[in-house]
Amino acid sequence: MRNILSQMKKIASFFYSNFEVALDLGTSNTRIAINGKGIVLREPTYVGFDTKNNNYLFFGAEAKEIQGKAPNYINIIRPIENGIIADFDAGVALMLYFLKKSIHPFILNKGFLKQKLVCYTTVPSSSTEVEQKALEESLLKSGFAEVYLIEKPLATALGIHHSIFSHKPVFVIDMGGGIIEIAIITLGGIVIQKINKLAGEHMDKLIYNYLHLKYGVIVGEHTAENLKINLFNFTDENKTLTIRGKSLENRLPKSIRVKSNDIKEALIGQFNQIVDMIKEVLEATPPEIINEIVKHGIILTGGLANIKAVNNFFVDELKIPVVIQESPQESTIKGLLKLMNNKEKLKRILIK
Questions:
Q1: pLDDT of 291-329, one tens digit each?
Q2: Which of the pair, 114 or 164, is modelled with greater confidence?
């Protein structure tokens, strides 16, 4: 009889347990993971809106692909700007699509057997209560029953296999598409932080402006982004890529050969700004923490950490060890997954 009761309790706990989802809603890309299954979605944070019929038609990778190619009545919307929700309705529409694509196939929802959908997500450490509330409301409207918010640097630090609850400080630089967050973390909290809203996507605009001025060519956002991904590096390698755009002189197609040195020249000023920000953080850091940072180094995460030898650039400028983890753009989502499996520590850092 006891065995039967215990089995029934296990079955009941499965059917009525929470279905926990980790969400890294980035300016450029969104990642969704399920507790016990890992990452189930990686897609650009783009939406295509049909102004004729007031309908959202394109989502994620497809919406990004048609940017610059669609008719005038199709608006490509970026629901997230600088890590916070900028278009509420578009954000809800995108989340409904992402949930239907990646989460709904796993949810047990048949008749009276229903699992409650719970979301754990991050916000920039500089976000206001209004911005946090807007994100929470958009996710609740998308179908989540509960939403829990965590400051992004804390989740990111956990995702790179560091304990954020010990007295040993962790210095993290998260270089994403929308913002660059610099934070020193210890004992489960942020000691000092600095944020730059001119991140990866702003760098694409700098490349666009550079080609416009130097070569007299107008290129699209995708072309500028591809040049950054394929050519930009901090080594002596000077690769070349042929691209086609529109001539400023006669508005006709024009091909040019772009070199790695061109992209470095366009972006080096932005990286020098990041170095200056890091120095400002170090200047404001207590001496005992500085000693630990010099010993253990700085960790780079985010999509820009994939730039070849970018850590060497920071080492040369700062004279401090700089480390890049494997798949740095997925550090945040991995950190959220770890927190979901340790509820006691999770409670300590949730935004109330």
A1: 889 888 999 999 999 999 999 999 999 999 999 988 999
A2: 164
Output the domain CATH number for residue 293: 3.30.420.40
> Using alpha carbons only, what angle is made at residue 216 by residues 214 and 219, rounded to the nearest 5 degrees?
100
Range of the domain at 298: 162-198+274-330
Say if CB 293 and CB 169 are below 8 A apart: yes
Quote the CA–CA distance of 204 and 336 in Å, as a whole number.
29
One domain for residues 209 and 317: no
Residues 154-188 have pLDDT tens digits of 999 999 877 888 888 999 999 999 899 999 999 88
Task: Report the number of distinct structural domains present in the chain.
Answer: 3
Query: Is position 7 within any domain?
Result: no
The pTM assigned to this predicted structure is 0.89
Radius of gyration of the chain (CA): 22
Give the span between the Cα atoms of 94 and 60, in whole angstroms. Answer: 8
Same domain, 150 and 121: yes
Contact between 27 and 177 (Cβ < 8 Å): yes
Q: For residue 71, give the 3-state DSSP assignment.
A: coil
Within-domain flag for 8: no
Instruction: Identify whether residues 73 and 132 lie together within a single domain.
Output: yes
309: left (phi over 0), alpha (psi -120 to 50) or beta: left
